[in-house]
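Example 3.2
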Amino acid sequence: MKPQHLLVAVPLTTLSALSTLGVQGFVPSVKKTSTPLTTSTLSSDVQTFVRQNSSTSNMPSQSAVTDTIETSFASPLDLNININNIDLEDVLKRKPPVPMEIATNAHGMPWEKSIGSSEHSNPLLYMPFWEWQMDFMSSTLTNLRPCSEMDCFEENSKFGLTTNADKKARIVNHCYSSDEYRKIRMTYYDAGDNTQVFNSVWYPNEEYDHPILGIDLLSFNRKKYLAIVDFQPIHESTISSGEDQEKIYSRLQLIKDHYPSLKGRMSSKFYDETQFFSQQMLFSRFEDEDIVQKELFPAFTRYVRLHTKIIQKELEPNASPKSKARVLARQAAYDTYSAERDPATGLFCSMFGKDWGEAFVFDFLFSLSSKKDQGLVIPPMPGAPPPNQRR
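Structure, written as tokens:
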């Protein structure tokens, strides 16, 4: 059943059940009517849904419903819901949202042991970054919740946990949203001392014309390291996005100046640093692992804190449809640009198969991207040794 414009009168418990499933797009309206407020006015599919999600003991009586509405509106009214472009069959199949206390520990996170071999006391090099970020998000963001549509929290989810037992490699993904951020995705790749990766991207809600926060940390053989942390501008230049953006990047520069090891320049062989990258990007290729804790970790936390602080305390949300559409279009352009160039794509495809890797890039990592006709083109990975030199 796929109604395009379905007008039904439903009991209040149905609203609660639909809300529990995270259904969006309902526009409540009220009007005077003489039609009794009973489930007999519903289609058979909706009646089935109501029976399955509302117990008889909890169903309000006709008088209770009327009393509630009269109390709110000072006149006897029936409640009507206008459902536009909702696939009701899809609604009936949806599972309730995953609770936060379950989501944060999904797939055994945070891990304590590596799946691969290691000669170090801290085999999961970047796990402290994951743990700090998860704690920060939980304590700071408003209405933090799992992104159930990203299919990464259930035990058999497509993008939750994927393992290559033969090569002793695994990848785990979480995805969240909040009132400040449309999407915050987190990825940890573990292959022992061979490779460690922590990646996270924070997309502001479209009411905020604010850079995307990008984090990419990689380690190869515990000898070569690559780090990128940036407020990634979504416009072609910071000038086009206003004076406030210039002030933001000035504040970033003050942070960057404290960490001399993170002042490298990105090679134009893989990315055009004038597109979706700022001059205040923390970038480094290094071989001294001490830099991870001495400079990279504190710089990372300061960038994350500032990004969130600006949204929460300094930016005014712009809810105009034109502004929101503009921001979302630029985030989509960022996704398309990044999907074609992500340096870790080859690693994921070699470990978990090209089909999985392609779906991962276009459906999870960069879910607003547009795929070219030829599909996924695997770019080289900057800073990584050739595959035959990785243990």
